[in-house]
Amino acid sequence: MTTHRLTRRKLLTTAAGAAVLGFPLPLRAQPKTFKVGAIHPVTGPLAEPGQACRLGAQMAAEAINAAGGIKSKGGIKLELLVGDTQTKPENGRVEAERVVQQGAQMLLGSFDSGSTNAMVSVAQQRRVPFLVDIAAADPITANVAKAVREGQQKVQYVYRNFPTGSSFGRKAVQYFTEIFREAGVSPKRVVPITRPASAQLLLPEIRKQKVEILGVVSPGSPGLYEAGQIAALKEDLEYVMASVPWPNFKNPKTKTLAEEYQKRSGGKTFDTNSGYSYDAMFVIADILERAARLDDPDTIVDAMRKTNYTAGLMQYGGPILFNEIGDNPNAIPTMIQILGQKPVAVWPKEAALQKFVFPRPKA
Hints:
The chain is an alpha/beta fold. Helix content is 42%, strand content 12%.
């Protein structure tokens, strides 16, 4: 009869083997996330457009992550650190500082030019690349570009994919001229509506006073197309035209996304705000795919400068790219008109879904 002595070494080896067999191996480490600080006015007077911006950015991040994340960087996922300016310009800086402290490696925002400009100082001081999704004031990028050009700062970290205020004015004059020519009319006096609050006062008064006008046009004001404004003004807003950045609804991808957005937003239209924030997240993903490294903000900025993105869902005049100022010269507005209580693209012809109505029908 043969006996086997169980030595201490064999006992430990056997025990270790049992442990390996009896318990699961540790899970493989998951890719870390790349944090983007998305700051918008989701409360206060500008809450409606700010909430649209946030939802657009969230839907884009979800779509990017579901498609595999940043593939060239091992599938790293995007994580949004959201902020709320409460429609107070000074809060742009406060919220930007907060999300950077929490690890934000890029900034996105912020709708109104005041809070966006406040975020610029944080981006430049903390070396955090900042993509402006919505804000039109020319100095936002121009001042930074000038400071870099004159040697006061080394690197420009602020870039914008949205029409500038000056480009709004130029395009509005072009569109108005073309529409008036097409309609065969020559208005002698123009009084544009530029803000939702003034529209809520003036448009009902025009109706009450039975003022004879050819139409109401806006060279680029926010808000006239939003669900809340249409609900407040109802028929008083019918036939009003506004030159605003607008989704390209001739693109099947835009139409599909708009349906999903409508469900998630409680029936609201995929518009200027949700659309530009959505595109901005995909531009960020494109930048990160091309950046040499993600732990160095200057390499991210190098990739930003070389952007040439052609898959945007908004109506552009060409690919998304950035000029020497840091602006996208191909970010252009579309003339929309409220027809049947819905905003519809009516000009230029290549973007139009319906023919414009001008002059508006007499009551």
